[in-house]
Amino acid sequence: MSSSTLITSANSTAHILKQASKLAIRVTRSTSAIAISNKRFVSSQSTAIAATRSLLATSRVNPLRQYTTSSLTVSNEKTNVNQAPALAAAVDEQDETMNDQKDKQEKRISEIKDAKLIFNQAFKNVQDIHGREHMIFPKEIIWLMGAPGSGKGTHTPAILRARGITNPPISMSSLLSTPECKDLINKGLMISDGKVVENLLHALLDCEPEVGVLVDGFPRSEVQVECLKLLHERMHELRKEYKHTPLKDFFPRPTFRICVLYVDEEISVNRQIMRGKLIKEHNAQVLRSGEGEIKEERVTDYDEMLIRARYQIFKDHYSCLLKLSKIFPFHLINAVGSIESVMRIILKEFEYQSSLELEHDTYEAISHIPLATKIGIHARQDLIRRLEHYCETEPEIFSKAVRFIDQEVSPMVARHAISGQALVRSDNPILSDPKIVEVVISILSERGYAITMDERVHETPRRVDPKTWEIILERTHVYALNIRFPQHHIQPLEQKF
């Protein structure tokens, strides 16, 4: 085959690829002679796809780049030139599909705001590393938060001394400055709440559990507030799980203390500007004298705009503090004043929070009673288990319960279908059997009804004993079933037009 024939075939292929991918690919012929041998080019379809992908990818980066015929791999026999547009379209479609899937996955991850899902996954990741029996947290955790310039760093040493805490404080800003977190920030990505919680759990487990620890800067979002609540509950679960094991002393009752320091915006701005000025003067003195250590200079201590922006972030997160106060009651601490006076307020606040907790012995005596928030977690599974048990092992009782519902409950419910509530009174003696009552309640609950039952005894005088003059009473048991279900709202006819 002549070289001119190969060049013509290559130009035709390039033209077709240009139409298929809508890319500006300009093919120029080299002015120099192109030595092309008569050896036939044999390439598979995968080779053509690879060449097409390479060509399209490069053209997207630099659409003005020129290609010569020598840069194209063309098969004149094994690969039909008419297949090129289809191959190019397939490549484009595959790339777009992969990009769409990646974008959707990243979007799903960024939109996940389910605190329970986030916490459970973070806790599992940490537990897989340490082991469940080693999930031993400090017995007291102080959560320190506050407005910028409120003196969190200043008061931290005094708080540690007052509470007898020897573990070094945990600063969330330091935890989020790890190489992994910096890499996410450099890529323009936000550090997820799951990663924040996971880093925090690792840091808490690295502490000595016999003494407490202070955490600076957590929680900062509503999701993190919910995660803090879940951590408290999980620590209670661990204590209950290991209560009757040799490890019970390693899982004490968790104690959370909340400390939120507050100053108004103007004081916050003035304090930070003054702090920046003092640090700059200190560092200048160290450079002149060669004695002392250089202190870190914060950019936010010199720019009033940045300072006010930081304070605005604190105000934006105020709703998180309100949510936190409903879980762990606390007061804002006015941090305007001397270190000693503010410290007295902090200790008084800790005493207040302690007064809201039960004494150890009292708590241990009632801790086995399930929390109201936990009672319904496995209620559905228990309900199904009960119904299956009675249906298989005691079918007679199950049939009596179903028959009672069909004859006495369902007609009354149908009569009150619009109201959403029905009161069924019955003197049927089968309700004296606790098993039948349990089955009736279970069946109605499974069908979506909320039911409560009350038993009352009516006494009716029947006769008088002539010898003792004692009034003989006849006792009748009446059972009242209060049944609630979703109310049906009927739209008036005139509102439809």
From TrEMBL:
Q: Tell whether Nucleus is among the UniProt keywords.
A: no
| Pfam families in the record | ADK
Q: Can the keyword Nucleotide-binding be found in this entry's annotation?
A: yes
Keywords, comma-separated and alphabetical: Kinase, Nucleotide-binding, Transferase
InterPro entries, from UniProt? Answer: Adenylat/UMP-CMP_kin, Adenylat_kinase_CS, P-loop_NTPase
Q: Name one GO biological process term.
A: nucleobase-containing compound metabolic process
Query: Coiled coil where?
Result: none
Extract one GO molecular function annotation from the record. nucleobase-containing compound kinase activity
Q: Which PANTHER family match?
A: NUCLEOTIDE KINASE (PTHR23359)
The family classification in the record reads: Belongs to the adenylate kinase family.
Q: What is this protein called?
A: Adenylate kinase
Q: Which organism is it from?
A: Mortierella polycephala
* Lineage summary: Eukaryota, Fungi, Fungi incertae sedis, Mucoromycota, Mortierellomycotina
